[in-house]
Design brief:
Strand order of the largest sheet: 1-2
Mean pLDDT: 87
Largest sheet: 2 strands, antiparallel
Distance between the termini: 19 Å
Number of helices: 1
Order of helices and strands: EEH
Structural class: alpha+beta
């Protein structure tokens, strides 16, 4: 993810040795998920890595 001023700008994929890349359908699903929950993901990341606070897990019950 590329974030500029707290706003998601671009989603990137990286190739990793020994791990097969996602199928086109799975990539699309993952991108939809990230777009939908981007602000929540960013806030939790900041809280955990920057502020050194523990966050609560989020249970997602609805289909995207």
């Amino acid at each position: 993810m590329i974030i500029n001023d707290g706003v998601l700008v671009k989603i990137q994929q990286r190739a990793r040795r020994g791990i097969e890349p996602l199928s086109a359908k799975d990539v699309k699903t993952a991108e939809q998920f990230i777009q939908t929950y981007a602000s929540n993901i960013i806030q939790k990341w900041i809280k955990f890595f920057v502020l050194k606070q523990r966050g609560q897990s989020t249970v997602i019950k609805k289909k995207i």
